[in-house]
Amino acid sequence: MAVAKRSATDRPAAPEPLVRAKGGEPAFGAEDLLAYWLDAGQRAVLFLDALRQRAENIVAHERAGKPPLLDFDFEVVAEARRFERPTNYSLLRITRVGEDCLGDCLQPGLRPVVVFDPRAGHGPGIGGFKRESEVGLALRAGHPTYFVSFAPEPVAGQTLHDVLRTLRRFLEEVGHRHPGQPPVLYGNCQAGWAITMLAADCQGLVGTAVLNGSPLSYWAGEPGVNPMRTAAGFTGGMWTAHLLSDLDDGRFDGAWLVQNFEALKPEGVWSKYADLFERVRAERERFLEFERWWNGFYMLGREEILAITENLFVGNRLEQGLVWLCQHCKVDLRRIRNPLV
């Protein structure tokens, strides 16, 4: 996952000025200098107003309890807080798109689609916070669609194994609702490797799994080109995550993970604001929509972040088949039998 950045092909040849020089021809007189500074001043005011609106959106989202940022109506079909080993996850069924009821849109016989959103510092919603999203495309194709969401605060003491058990229970619930139709699973970022771990444990999975931006090998790549690897070595690796969790009474603030994403590509942070300033009128709504999700920070439990750090980012144990879910089962990628895309 990285800071949102538009590709070069999406950019106009040159920014459209808010104030044009008289005559439209290049000139170097005082009038053109005045037009330049007037244009820059107007852009600065609109740029700062967009940042003000972003701050107000963040505060409003927090006061509302940080609900899932979905552009679709939904109902809760399974709440993991009521499970024997409770977690902060829930399974949602998409019920309505705007004013359109789904009853006339779904095509009988199509397999269900389950979208797993990443729990990596942000809140749920990136897979369905606009109509042109994984949820929207699945609905447009006529598939019954489900969304795996989660609450801002973890259940005290929940572990990575508890989370994986929860996700399996959700898939069993979808299977009961659609017998004989293996679901299509969309895993974004962190959710992708979570689905992979389910497929590689002692029970396995059925149905096609689509992994979007989901790393499975954490020591891959050329040495010396990833700034976070060097930073982790200097700051103590797992020790840092343990300390930050202890300082927050067993919780790990997801804002630290978001900061790490930005540290992976610092120039992306600059480009985000530069693009907004350059095309402030055209980019404002897209910027605000994305930032509402990007700055909605969620917590992880100490046991979760330590297991993730030890087994994945530091230990690279997933690739080696050394992740133990319990005393009797470990994850082995060679067990995977369902298709991965």
UniProtKB/TrEMBL annotation:
Protein name per Swiss-Prot or TrEMBL = Poly(3-hydroxyalkanoate) synthetase
Q: Which organism is it from?
A: Alsobacter soli
Residues of the region (Disordered) are: 1-21
Q: Out of the domains of life, which is the source?
A: Bacteria
| Xref: InterPro entries | AB_hydrolase_fold (IPR029058), DUF3141 (IPR024501), PHA/PHB_synthase (IPR051321)
